[in-house]
Amino acid sequence: MTPPAHWPNRDKGRHIRTRPHDWWVVEDGTGPTILLLHGAGGSGHSFAPLLPYLTPHYRCIIPDLPGQGFTRAGARGRFGLDPTADDLATFCDLNGIAPAAIIGHSAGAAIALRLSEILSLQGVVGINAALGTFEGLAGTLFPMLARGFASIPFLPSVIARTWGNAARVNGLLDGTGSQLSPEARAQYLTLVQSAAHIDGALGMMSQWNLTPLVSRLGSNPVPTLLITGDKDRTVPPRISRDAAARMPAAQYAELPGLGHLAQEEAPKDIADLILPWLRSHMTQA
Length: 285
Prior knowledge:
- The protein is α/β, with parallel strands linked by helices.
- It is 42% helix and 16% strand.
- α3 (107-115) links the parallel β5 and β6.
């Protein structure tokens, strides 16, 4: 799969085949290397508004996660947190990529923290980090439902047809608490209309298990900055606030008026937090 002509940073992207996946990867900028990881149901395009603030200082590597966006999954059993982190570590190793830091959005922040246990990193930045688990009955039922949906072969095509319209996508985006431009909304519509992307997102949700990672946060020594928008309706700010309080080297920052897709709504505000923090924690910078 190749992005359409209008896709953000298409001219800076390429497919890199590193088993088991055929990764779509955007690379831009010069300087110390930073890996940027998007959230569930999204793609690397969500960092496009932030990139102009980062690339004068850093070499940014932005892969689409397995099965999502324009990365073709080579193994459907490797959508979970640990396999995804392992495959990203292999991707970096085999392609000579040594990130000094990782910026992750939502589920991408959880993957970044898992990678901090595998790679030698100087810092992790999480934007509206998805570090919480569903409580009570939902904690049991949601994973079961996701696994059931992911096992139905034709369901991704059905979802792409029935949900792949502007009204449905606008409703989903409004539910994040973020206010996006018509152009940004059209990009998410393109993703939702892709059965392969829906299949990858369902696969990720069905195999997702945060419990082991969350239980280890208190012993993670990697400097971490957790940024939230106070209007996030997808991952409540208290999730990042509580995680930062448990971690020995974490800081928490909250921005008013922003929702779950904060890096798309207010990239300069996000960059104004990230850049000085990276400078103070990265020895290569």
